[in-house]
Write a structure and sequence with these properties.
Layout: H1 2-27, H2 30-47, H3 55-71, H4 76-93, H5 96-112, H6 116-132, H7 136-145, H8 158-170, H9 175-183, H10 186-189, H11 198-206, H12 210-225, H13 234-250, E1 255-257, H14 258-265, H15 269-281, E2 287-290, E3 295-298, H16 303-330
Antiparallel strand pairs: 1-3, 2-3
Family: Belongs to the proteasome subunit S10 family.
Function: Acts as a regulatory subunit of the 26S proteasome which is involved in the ATP-dependent degradation of ubiquitinated proteins.
InterPro entries: PCI_dom (IPR000717), Rpn7/CSN1 (IPR019585), Rpn7_N (IPR045135), RPN7_PSMD6_C (IPR049549), WH_DNA-bd_sf (IPR036390)
Amino acid sequence: MEIYCFLHLNYTSNLINLSRIADAEENLGESEVREAHLAKSLFYVRIGDKAGSLSTYISEKALEQLKVTESKTVAVGQKMDLVFYTLQMGLFDLDFDLISKSIDKAKKLFEEGGDWERKNRLKVYEGLFCMSTRNFKKAADLFLDSISTFTTYELFPYDTFIFYTVLTSIITLDRVSLKQKVVDAPEILTVIGKIPYLSEFMNSLYECQYKSFFSSFAGLTEHIKLDRYLQPHFRYYMREVRTVVYSQFLESYKSVTIEAMAKAFGVSEDFIDLELSRFIAAGKLHCKIDKVAGVLETNRPDAKNALYQATIKQGDFLLNRIQKLSRVIDL
């Protein structure tokens, strides 16, 4: 039944589109011919998500027709719109190879020209691609650049965009940048209250209200699990957020008791001990546990000393290269 309906729909639409294309080629100009081909392309793009097992065939037909339409297109802006249609298909199917190639193609088109509105739209597409491929740092930067110019409603509503922006920013920005770009951002403040638990999640982290942070995070996890782009990275995001909050807590202390930390987070001492031991072993937290005394001792790395050691190492490598080169020249 599904195949019959598809074939009937495909046959009928093709007759309409072919007659429109033929009429445009015989009686109208180049712009009308392009519009007729574009209409056929958009038809395939629209039905791609309703074809079930035939979606691969439809996607191929859509991409093929978009290429035909592109060959009839001269203006850079119109070519960009065709790239956006391709990106929508790639994001729907999570075809990361197609998305990556389309983004590169769009950037090359911008070198030929292009308006700011389309450039800002591309930032959201690229940010969503980065988030879907676990590049949260770049995704946060692109989303933050697009907050005041967001027009990409064909992907998701503004509420969802703010949801992605806050989540990616929390695990990638330092405390000062988070305050400036997210916590105090008027565009975010006007919307964040509409998303359950998100405001409490963000503010409790910044204000060091760790009990509230954990309770709001528990409520937010269901929203993350239901999101098609974040769900594959759910466990990874959970670990990164906990790394951020534990690091923020420990940054204030040279040493602190496990009991005090467990009380601050509203969990048991055994839970904190198990959690921190995993993060310490993975190199995520710079501290050590004195289980006998029940104390956590922080041992933050010295950034300046590390930079000095790296400089010395690179200098030794350069001197060795110069010595080898001098021997070759002497010969």
